[in-house]
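User: Just a sanity check before I run the rest of the batch. Below are the structure tokens for the first item. I only need the designed sequence back.
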């Protein structure tokens, strides 16, 4: 068995299962009597718009604009404009796109269709500060949240209440038109109000909760932001508001569906897949330690299944940045996993972001093998020191173990797979690592 090739094939299958060209067409609504305006935001937005443009009747009016991450455009489309902007920290291009999209929503009538294409990354790409605050202020708070260890739901709670377009405000602007949202989920639990901060979804979070997130992570805010969050008039539209009466949400791709696609690849290879969950959260290094314990239980005691088997999981971990390295949550997970496995034989792993970008690096993730620590030691690399410095990308780049996909044009969050190929490790380091330990003792 080529363990690394199998893991990469599983990752590719997970990404392919969420390809917009596959998942968008079956969910398109029928053309309305009036106009159809297509808008969207996220890493998959351009590819989703391409699928709409290609499958919409040529004799039916269609127009609109979507915004995606730099490098995630798909070329010029016939009837829908594509704009690229910054992610994860918003920029002026995203602000201008958000202004145009909000203007398109206004003035629609009951015979019109407002088709919204929403995917992960849309929160920073669809950036329109609430009245009274500046883009620079939003950017500073966003950077602080990204470094704080806050999870995606906490970050989006704050983003929603600092926005003039998110948290249902876009759908509210389009009323009384029919609003249909096609959503590719990148969040644990597939909560549509969290994906891209829910521009077309009623918001159940509150101003008080946004203030609490900022307090919990010791994030200072300028006076204008503090005043906005203290003013009840700035609360977001809530469930039951009549502006959502003609609002429909369709979840067209999810992390679970991608995990199941990867599991199918494992079965064909005669490896038993165990899907541990599609919504696993927590500090990446702690999740790595937990997963190491499960892998060791399989290798040592054939529980919860005998080898060969593969532990598959998704979700979104977090990283509290304390070092100065080049890290991302997937490589941080893998570094922690490798350290805790300590060269355990027959255990291999892959972790990557299905959008092709792990953190701010143009790298999806990396792989771990039983000889990872031994090879690193021969290069003068110390995995524990790299982990302490949050330098997962630097570590795996030196080893040549990075997973690089380029833009995938979709996003169903993180994919992790740990393959236990067979044999019994007995909880002891592998032979290569033991030799390195002996040499360096």
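Assistant: Here's the designed sequence for the first item:
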């Amino acid at each position: 068995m080529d363990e690394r090739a199998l893991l990469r094939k599983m990752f590719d299958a997970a990404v392919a299962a969420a390809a917009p060209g596959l998942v968008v067409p079956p969910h398109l609504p029928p053309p309305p009597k009036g106009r159809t305006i297509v808008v969207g935001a996220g890493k998959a937005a351009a590819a989703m718009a391409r699928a709409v443009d290609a499958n919409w009747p040529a004799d039916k009016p269609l127009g609109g604009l979507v915004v995606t991450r730099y490098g995630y455009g798909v070329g010029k489309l016939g009837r829908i404009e594509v704009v690229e902007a910054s992610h994860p920290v918003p920029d002026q291009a995203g602000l201008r796109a958000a202004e145009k999209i909000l203007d398109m929503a206004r003035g629609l009538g009951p015979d019109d269709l407002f088709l919204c294409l929403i995917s992960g990354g849309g929160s920073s790409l669809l950036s329109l500060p609430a009245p009274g605050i500046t883009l620079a202020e939003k950017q500073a708070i966003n950077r602080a949240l990204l470094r704080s260890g806050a999870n995606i739901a906490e970050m989006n709670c704050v983003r929603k209440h600092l926005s003039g377009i998110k948290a249902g405000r876009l759908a509210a602007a389009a009323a009384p038109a029919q609003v249909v949202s096609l959503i590719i989920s990148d969040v644990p639990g597939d909560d549509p109000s969290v994906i891209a901060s829910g521009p077309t979804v009623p918001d159940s979070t509150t101003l008080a909760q946004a203030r609490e997130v900022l307090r919990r992570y010791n994030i200072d805010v300028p006076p204008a932001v503090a005043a906005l969050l203290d003013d009840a008039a700035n609360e977001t539209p809530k469930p039951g508001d009549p502006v959502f009466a003609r609002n429909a949400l369709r979840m067209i791709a999810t992390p679970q569906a991608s995990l199941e696609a990867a599991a199918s690849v494992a079965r064909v290879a005669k490896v038993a897949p165990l899907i541990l969950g599609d919504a696993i959260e927590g500090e990446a290094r702690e999740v790595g330690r937990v997963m190491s314990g499960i892998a060791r239980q399989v290798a040592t005691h054939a529980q919860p299944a005998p080898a060969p088997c593969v532990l598959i999981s998704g979700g979104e971990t977090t990283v509290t940045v304390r070092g100065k390295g080049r890290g991302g949550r997937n490589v941080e997970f893998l570094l922690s996993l490798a350290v805790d496995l300590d060269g355990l034989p027959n255990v291999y792993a892959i972790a990557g972001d299905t959008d092709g970008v792990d953190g701010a690096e143009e790298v999806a993730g990396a792989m771990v093998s039983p000889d990872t620590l031994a090879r690193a030691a021969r290069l003068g690399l110390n995995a524990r020191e790299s982990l302490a410095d949050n330098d997962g990308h630097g570590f795996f780049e030196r080893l040549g173990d990075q997973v690089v996909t380029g833009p995938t044009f979709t996003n169903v969050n993180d994919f992790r797979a740990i393959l236990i190929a067979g044999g019994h490790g007995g909880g002891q380091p592998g032979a290569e690592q033991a030799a390195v330990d002996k040499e360096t003792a």
